[in-house]
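Dear H.,

Thanks for agreeing to be a second pair of eyes. The structure we're designing against is below in token form, covering all 508 positions.
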């Protein structure tokens, strides 16, 4: 890459001073004019928002309020705790909170009018100082940046207007949607059950909102919920997903991503795989891993060492899923460096805060565009996803060539469905379902077992009652616990359900 610089040459000191003074006077004039222009624009926007707020019973709506919420994710992205992000956003959007802060920001370059001065004054006299022969990669990068910028600019205005029109057209009660963030800040400000009750008392049992720029309706009426979930389930069978999130494989063919007839077809094939008869066949694999867990806990008890139940149950869950879903024998407790274990842990160590996901929530129409442009996996590391895809495909090829393995796992049960032409899964669908079982089962099961241990440790009477029931139905000299015996333990079933009620691993 070569650069040619062009400078204006002054012939003497007087000419240089004259040119410099002229540029300074021009810059000062631009500063004054642009500052007044931006102040006028902000005052106009503030009046417009105040008028709209008065029409929808939200008189607090103002440009400064919008700024306080708009800058919340920006504050979080630079490392501020989410609990304090709203305060930081308010500091940026509102200049009257502190006289010192206001003086500094308004006189410096921290305020929005000052940004207008920069844009107006500095860019107006801008001349290209150099001519570059950019490479193809640089031009591609510039083209991508322009595409993203244009899409963002159009999406912000279009989606916000659509949110407002949707609210007025259908007479939807709820908070007035803010630009970019929608009603998300109002809901995050009080996400507790008490906050939900206050919203129900204010707007009724059916009220609307927007997740970023996605319109949603919250239904809290039990009779309507019964109709949606039972009677009219055929009309509400699709799961809500952000556009583009599930496009990268193996997420694209999971039950979470499939819609309508495709979801129904795959679900009808998978349902028999989780029947009581099939679960009985997998009991041996689960018992083998349970013995490893029991030996590890016994060793820790004898040595009186401190343990982290979440880590131990995480190893147990990882081994169970590896055997029952993929047919792979692992020992996470003794061999944590196994590639399957290492990539599995990487999948679940991904950061929860994902700027791309937040961007797609705010601009939902950009989801497919961002996914294809960035080739970005939304939730998990790309190399770990590729590892699971390759391993699954290798196992599938081995099973197809060697039909006498006698394996009983989810992967084999899905392969057996290929014998029925009308009820067969493609290789991509098989890989996707195996992966989603791994993702859905690991964290939830390990968390449940951890809380179950905590409840037993803090409630000795419950522990004694449960132990007595197990001793009555399963003798201590029993070599293998069978499926039927476990189903004869009603108190154990009640204990698990109560633990899930008190400490749910996931929330809807």
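And this is the sequence the design step returned. I haven't edited it by hand at all.
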């Amino acid at each position: 890459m070569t650069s040619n610089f062009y400078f204006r040459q002054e012939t003497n000191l007087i000419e240089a001073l004259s040119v410099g003074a002229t540029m300074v006077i021009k810059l000062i004039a631009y500063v004054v004019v642009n500052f007044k222009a931006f102040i006028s624009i902000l005052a106009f926007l503030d009046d417009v928002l105040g008028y709209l707020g008065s029409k929808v019973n939200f008189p607090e709506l103002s440009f400064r309020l919008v700024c306080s919420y708009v800058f919340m994710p920006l504050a979080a992205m630079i490392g501020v705790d989410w609990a304090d992000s709203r305060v930081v956003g308010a500091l940026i959007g509102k200049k009257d909170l502190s006289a010192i802060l206001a003086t500094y920001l308004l006189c410096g370059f921290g305020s929005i009018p000052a940004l207008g001065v920069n844009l107006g004054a500095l860019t107006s006299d801008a001349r290209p100082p150099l001519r570059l022969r950019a490479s193809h990669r640089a031009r591609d990068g510039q083209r991508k940046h322009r595409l993203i910028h244009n899409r963002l600019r159009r999406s912000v205005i279009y989606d916000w207007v659509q949110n407002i029109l949707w609210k007025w057209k259908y007479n939807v009660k709820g908070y007035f949607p803010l630009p970019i963030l929608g009603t998300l800040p109002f809901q995050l400000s009080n996400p507790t059950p008490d906050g939900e009750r206050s919203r129900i008392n204010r707007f009724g049992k059916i009220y609307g909102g927007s997740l970023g720029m996605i319109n949603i309706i919250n239904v809290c009426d039990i009779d309507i919920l019964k109709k949606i979930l039972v009677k009219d389930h055929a009309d509400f069978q699709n799961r809500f997903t952000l556009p583009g999130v599930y496009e990268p494989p193996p997420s694209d063919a999971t039950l979470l991503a499939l819609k309508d007839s495709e979801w129904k077809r795959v679900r009808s094939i998978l349902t028999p795989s989780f029947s009581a008869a099939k679960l009985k066949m997998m009991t041996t694999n689960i018992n083998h891993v349970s013995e490893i867990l029991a030996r590890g806990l016994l060793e820790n008890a004898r040595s009186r060492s401190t343990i982290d139940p979440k880590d131990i149950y995480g190893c147990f869950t990882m081994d169970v899923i590896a055997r029952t879903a993929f047919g792979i024998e692992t020992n996470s407790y003794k061999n944590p460096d196994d590639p399957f274990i290492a990539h599995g842990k990487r999948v679940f160590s991904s950061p929860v805060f994902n700027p791309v996901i937040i961007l797609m929530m705010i601009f939902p129409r950009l989801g497919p565009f961002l996914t294809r442009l960035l080739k970005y996996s939304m939730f998990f590391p790309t190399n770990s996803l590729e590892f699971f895809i390759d391993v699954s495909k290798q196992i599938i090829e081995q099973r197809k060539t060697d039909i006498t393995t006698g394996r009983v796992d989810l992967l084999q049960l899905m392969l057996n469905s290929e014998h029925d032409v009308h009820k067969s899964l493609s290789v991509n669908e098989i890989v996707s379902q195996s992966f989603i079982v791994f993702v859905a089962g690991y964290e939830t099961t390990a968390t449940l077992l951890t809380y179950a241990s905590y409840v037993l440790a803090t409630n000795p009477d419950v522990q004694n009652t449960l132990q007595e029931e197990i001793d009555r139905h399963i003798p201590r000299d029993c070599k293998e616990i069978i499926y039927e015996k476990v189903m004869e333990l009603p108190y154990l079933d009640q204990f698990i359900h109560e633990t899930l009620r008190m400490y749910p691993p996931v929330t809807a």
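Two observations from my side: Residues 1-7, 95-134 have pLDDT under 50 and may be disordered. The first helix runs from residue 13 to 55.

Warmly,
E.
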